[in-house]
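User: Structure with NQM, tokens only please.
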Amino acid sequence: MTDYDSTGVRCMMLRGGTSRGLFFEAADLPARTEERDDLLLRLMGTPDPRQIDGLGGSTSLTSKVAVISRSEHPAADIDYLFLQLGVDEPTVSDRQNCGNILAGVGPFAVERGLVPVSGDDTSVRIRMVNSDSVAVASFATPQGRVEYRGDVTISGVPGTASPVILGFTDTEGSATGRLLPTGQVRDSIDGIDVTCVDNGMPVVLAMAGSFGLTGYESHPELSEDQPLLDRIDAFRRKAGQLMGLGDPAGTSVPKTVLLAPPRDGGQLSTRSFIPVQPHTSVGVLAAISVVTGMLLPGAVGHELTADWPTSRIDVEHPTGHLLVDVVVEDGAVVRSGVVRTARKLFDGVAFPRAGSPRE
Ligand code: NQM
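Assistant:
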């Protein structure tokens, strides 16, 4: 049996989109789920709000893990299991995907020699194990190496980097099994009109006004409003039940997204809660799910879509914009995609802190 405390674990840290995660080859981690999760929590420094004795960055956006292996699925090259770790609670959840961390998966697979490079641009077919759906990531690989430098800017990340283009084929009903998990395009929770939708991420949509908000509040304004966060928590728990997700306590889905008309040249404004703390920007698959939901006649916010372009939708969020490519026809998703960037931050051996994370 490997003594990870003394050998450490081979690990790469990458920024994927506006998130940061620890990337592992599955074979480098314990095979037993409980042992694996215990090790990951100790590496991340969870539970501790500062994660001072681990590699996490004190937020859910920097407490993420990707477990990668070659795929046996005929439509995929790589399997990607996403795990969301808690920060101050010792939780590890496989209930959601993460489209931001996904941006680092193709580059990681090339770095580790798990897929061949194919000329100046490599495409990797990635099975998102959490939802058993496939995404294709395309990125530059001149001279057989991943190119991280480039001229693409994404809101929420300083500087520029090389693009990673993500295309999704079959994300409908990721965790819930259905694009409209309640079977209806509109429901009511605590007297508030909502649309529950899952095109890669289970989200509950409501107008910001129905929470007494403008929908343009800053991240600190939202994160410091404890009564609002308590209300969001109770609200998303009810939404989770309606969506067939059971009791969402301790899991990271569903997310709540509050909508408002655009005010910065985009097509809509969003404030997301993941699942209780506000997001500094917006999740990739969350944004895709929001846009998909709004495009359905009868959905909350559908009236905002009247003059939307046919595909590229500009989603405003607290720190900028996220452009998603979503096409819906006759209530079904034809395609969805997004442009992200990624960067390798370190490659080496990580050492877990001692003790049990659950004591
Ligand atoms: O929705 C955060 C993130 C995410 C998820 C979260 C994401 C997605 O920004 O695909 O990217 O929802 O907890 O990394």
